[in-house]
Amino acid sequence: xxxxxxxxxxxxxxxxxxxxxxxxxxxxxxxxxxxxxxxxxxxxxxxxxxxxxxxxxxxxxxxxxxxxxxxxxxxxxxxxxxxxxxxxxxxxxxxxxxxxxxxxxxxxxxxxxxxxxxxxxxxxxxxxxxxxxxxxxxxxxxxxxxxxxxxxxxxxxxxxxxxxxxxxxxxxxxxxxxxxxxxxxxxxxxxxxxxxxxxxxxxxxxxxxxxxxxxxxxxxxxxxxxxxxxxxxxxxxxxxxxxxxxxxxxxxxxxxxxxxxxxxxxxxxxxxxxxxxxxxxxxxxxxxxxxxxxxxxxxxxxxxxxxxxxxxxxxxxx
Length: 318
Ligand code: CP
Ligand code: NVA
Fold this sequence. Notes:
CATH topology of the largest domain: Rossmann fold
CATH class of the largest domain: Alpha Beta
Strand content: 5-15%
Number of domains: 2
Largest sheet: 5 strands, parallel
Low-confidence stretches: none
CATH architecture of the largest domain: 3-Layer(aba) Sandwich
Bound molecules: phosphoric acid mono(formamide)ester, norvaline
Structural class: alpha/beta
Order of helices and strands: HEHEHEHEHEHEHEHEHEHHH
């Protein structure tokens, strides 16, 4: 991408080349507390966040992260703005681009955030769509890196072939991690996304293995990851969760993982469904560090996308 083009983040592979740097920056900035009071790359900038679905982590981490970087954050709940039947995505994008310096958008269909990115003249961040959750994966790989799992066993996913898995695989293989996922039959990840991930893995030397067998995925894993079985927007699929029998992350399943495995979950968790209390509350669980890192990873993304000069200046500090 040329530096004078606006940067949009629809899926994490949009930034595949710079992802290691984005994650390094997030870890470095999180720990570099002495510069927090002076480094304000969003000073004078306003970031608006549109939500069509509920959110705890994404909403709070964007609001607080923008504030910490010196910017103004506006949360725009879809029911409170004209977007939808009253006003098209393109007209909304044109208007918001006159006020804002960046837009985040949590939507149902992925094509909606793609349309917003096409029609806005300011950077657009996908804050979760039915197909991708790139901010989650940036925080996930930041957390895996922080906990030193780079050379540990592979990343194992047990659960639905959903938005969180898509970006976890894309980001995981981009950083050289092997990924093994197990989903119930018929719940496999999107084949187009997996083809993109395989092309990245070919370059980095990582591997991707899919099956319908949770034990195969988890055996010797360094990271064990799951998500809710029925995602937002799928509530009408009442029989979906029945397909996940045998896919709960519990003590019997994690006994197959490396003894120092890390348990990860994007949250919110449905305890007793996709994960047992014993696992999510165990010493191996890093779910709350992972949640906190949503903010640091997004602060890195916002600086990278909205203030190239500050991004470069921070890198020049050694
Ligand atoms: N993981 C995540 O995106 O959480 P929220 O739905 O609370 O934002
Ligand atoms: N797959 C879940 C993730 C929630 C953060 C969903 O889309 O609802």
